């Protein structure tokens, strides 16, 4: 049987142990607000043909899942728990399962990639003997240990795709992220920004499109190769030579030859940054994540808002909002305001700075 649009929207409920009868009764209760069994039977008669005993059994299952409350009286009445509380509970359970799965898979991945080889960590210069090992070290060590900034120069989409999670985690810690590129770096791509957007859309990133090419051109094994770069905290330099591996519309891929660089290269990085300053900016884009943009928009319309209001409007959990607020406070875009109350603790509000 084909799943209806409503059933697809309610799929998370089915995933968390609801059966069809429970979903129908709970949805009816949400619409009624508070109801007796008689009220519920009238409300769902077109969807379910059940008896008083059957609906009591369904309500008992809903109560066991702690998503409805019962008011005792001459006639029992039932009220639904706030759906946000229920979904947050399920969200946390799913997150715990994903974290556990991530741990298991990463253990296997670490074992799989360990035999590829090690970088020469004993020296200032490094060279990874496999692309997999290079990507893993960049994400697990360089980006994870980053304190201030990451600058991507002439970086092919492949790198952003592979480092997507690491970049998001760095951004969530307040790390400044920049992208420097030129259309001449990627003439084979009709729209470079559109190509990399799926991998950076959850981060606030400053993107500078320069007039002249930003990649280095070198020869490896007598073949012309471009070299993109990553600058971390103004000290670590990562080089990734790349070439066009496939050029068949609409698919274009950039193959990576190797990954190398220096653990401590402030002098080289200074020269690279100097060359960027001499390369005029043709366009500057501030890539703002949708949730961040929505939060700023809400605060422009309402000068003061509480956390619970923002959670509801943004449709995110309290934990996600906390991280978002912490990041925007650090960036100086918003601030927390504490207002004393006649009774109880002061209330915290959020406003634009």
Automatic annotation (TrEMBL):
Transmembrane segments: none
Leader sequence segment: none
InterPro entries: TrmB-like (IPR051797), Tscrpt_reg_TrmB_N (IPR002831), WH-like_DNA-bd_sf (IPR036388), WH_DNA-bd_sf (IPR036390)
Ranges for domain Transcription regulator TrmB N-terminal: 23-83
Domain of life: Archaea
PANTHER family: HTH-TYPE TRANSCRIPTIONAL REGULATOR TRMBL2 (PTHR34293)
Protein name from the UniProt record: Transcription regulator TrmB N-terminal domain-containing protein
């Amino acid at each position: 049987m084909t799943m209806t649009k409503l059933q697809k929207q309610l799929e998370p409920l089915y995933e968390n142990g609801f059966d069809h009868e429970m979903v129908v009764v709970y949805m009816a209760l949400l619409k009624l607000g508070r109801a007796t069994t008689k009220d519920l039977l009238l409300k769902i008669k077109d969807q379910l043909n059940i008896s008083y005993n059957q609906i009591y059994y369904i309500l008992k299952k809903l109560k066991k899942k702690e998503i409805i409350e019962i008011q005792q009286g001459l006639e029992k009445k039932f009220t639904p728990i706030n759906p946000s509380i229920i979904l947050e509970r399920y969200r946390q359970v799913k997150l715990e399962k994903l974290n556990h799965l991530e741990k298991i898979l990463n253990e296997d991945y670490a074992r799989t990639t360990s035999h590829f080889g090690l970088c020469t960590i004993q020296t200032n210069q490094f060279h990874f003997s496999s692309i997999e090992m290079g990507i893993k070290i960049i994400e697990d060590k360089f980006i994870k240990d980053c304190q201030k900034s990451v600058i991507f120069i002439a970086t092919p989409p492949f790198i952003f795709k592979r480092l997507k999670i690491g970049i998001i985690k760095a951004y969530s810690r307040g790390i400044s992220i920049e992208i420097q590129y030129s259309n001449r770096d990627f003439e084979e791509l009709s729209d470079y920004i559109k190509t990399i957007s799926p991998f950076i859309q959850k981060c606030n990133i400053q993107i500078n499109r320069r007039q002249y090419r930003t990649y280095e051109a070198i020869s490896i094994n007598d073949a012309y190769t471009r070299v993109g770069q990553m600058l971390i905290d103004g000290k670590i330099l990562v080089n990734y030579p790349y070439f066009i591996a496939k050029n068949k519309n609409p698919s274009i891929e950039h193959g990576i030859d190797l990954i190398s660089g220096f653990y401590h290269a402030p002098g080289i990085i200074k020269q690279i940054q100097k060359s960027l300053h001499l390369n005029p900016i043709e366009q500057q884009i501030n890539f703002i994540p949708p949730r961040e943009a929505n939060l700023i928009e809400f605060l422009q319309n309402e000068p003061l808002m509480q956390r619970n209001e923002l959670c509801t409007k943004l449709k995110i959990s309290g934990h996600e909002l906390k991280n978002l607020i912490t990041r925007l406070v650090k960036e100086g875009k918003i601030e927390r305001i504490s207002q004393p109350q006649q009774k109880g603790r002061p209330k915290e509000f959020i406003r634009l700075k």
